[in-house]
Design a protein that fits this description.
Bound molecules: ligand BES, zinc ion
Helix content: 25-40%
Structural class: alpha/beta
Distance between the termini: 34 Å
Shape: elongated
Number of strands: 20
Length: 464
Amino acid sequence: MTDFASLLVADRGQKARTIHLVDKGSFDAWLKGRPAEDRALIEAHRFDGKKGFTFVILPRGKEFEVVSAVKNATELSPWCLAKLAESLPEGAYKLASGDVGQSGLGWLLAQHHFNDYRSSADVEPGARVLVTSELARVDEIVRLAEATALVRDLVNTPAADLGPQQIENAVKGEANRSGAKVRVISGAELSEGYPLIAAVGAAATPERAPRLIELEWGDARHPRIAIVGKGVCFDSGGLDLKSASGMRIMKKDMGGSAHALALARLITMERLPVRLHLLIPAVENAVSGAAYRPGDIVKSRKGLTVEIDNTDAEGRLILADALTKAVESEPELIIDFATLTGAARVALGPDLPATFSNHDDLASELELAAREVDDPLWRMPLWDAYEDLLKSDIADFANASSSPMAGCITAAIFLKKFVPDEIAWAHLDTWAWKDPARPGRPKGGEALGLRAVFEVLKRRYLQR
Ligand code: BES
Ligand code: ZN
Ligand code: ZN
């Protein structure tokens, strides 16, 4: 993992090249105060301070300074320095304003690359260190970068090398670091206690057997919260096999579990005063003679019977049993992350996790925090009338609708059947993927919604 802590450091008067950030409003006044040679250079580059991500190098003898345009120079976005961090030569830099704000995140993540599978990694340019006057924020920004990089790396790892066992290993690694306890349920115990997880994972080879991975951390006197993440290490669709293009990036179908694990890491590192219960149902949705079938009926852990309409709607099945287990410990809050539906992407595109909640307060807190930390998400309705779309002729309900309409809503309504109204619950149907690439955000695995949820948890629990 990239050593982020060495790339963002507190200001102790180190020598560093200055980065001037300007925006539409501040550019003219800033330019007036510059020496004539700067002004000539800036003019020659036709730099007008308006186009984000452009910059000009201003020579200072053997050294140099930099001026870069950002959208808002007084409220820095997480990604406004990412292009600079990707482009500038090795060395230490500091902002003329001193304070890095959220922009430290993009500075760090722009220097993180997933090179595990390259036989010769592109020559890494030297570290670019950013010096900031905001002492208190350095640790937090570094932790957010580490959590984001964890999601990216887990999602980017090919399914052949990241099965349920490796997800379990990743959870155990986190538990060792934080002193948490881990329990893994598999085999007969899984078939008896978690029939939906067992059904979805039935076709996988024995080394990739399905399991429920649970982590418990914190003081029993603190309020209990549960974080749940969809851990489908590869989604072929099962017997309702996906098309080649539909399957191409389905290694990312464990993205929800990667978000959940990264959030657990943030919670434990921040030592939030909560009793954390992390639940990750980890399976491979494979094809074999042992595969579960369309038309099968499975009795869930909760006792409700589910007719399998479509084996490709597997995420909601494994989440249903995991949510049931979470509910049994009576948490005051449940958050789940899942790459649950293509329909959420059709509705909101790649950037916005479709966010559902049974509690308006929680939904508002998420929307506000998402805006403030620049980790956008969008609320969607748990529209009860669409429950009819999940009707089954012979079971309590089906796992999918025969109509393609409102696919992410019917998926969320399915999950809602397993969470009682009195528990505040939010479900993030996220993409866990970036395409196309943006500065600091290469094409591939991505954390979407993670920082927004963490911000809500901090606001809820740090101020008690
Ligand atoms: N993992 C997919 C959802 C998905 C697909 C997320 C593409 C992101 C991009 C999920 O398990 C799935 O296949 N859902 C089906 C549900 C349908 C069969 C009711 C879908 O969305 O098509
Ligand atoms: Zn699927
Ligand atoms: Zn899936």
